[in-house]
Amino acid sequence: MQFSRRKWIKRSLLVGGGAVVLDAGVIEKHWLSITRLKIPLAPPHSALEGIKLAMMSDFHHDDFGDSSLIRRAVQVINEESVDLVCLLGDYITKDISGMAPLCKELSALRPRLATIAIYGNHDRGHWEPAMDQALLSTGAQILSNDSLDFSGFSVAGIDSCLRGKPDFARTLKKVPKNQPVILARHEPDYFDQHKDPRIAMQVSGHSHGGQICLPFYGPVFLPRMGRKYPYGLYRDGSDQLYVTRGIGTLTAPIRFLCRPEVAILHFVRG
Ligand SMILES: [Fe+2]
Question: Is this structure's pTM higher than 0.90?
Answer without folding.
Answer: yes
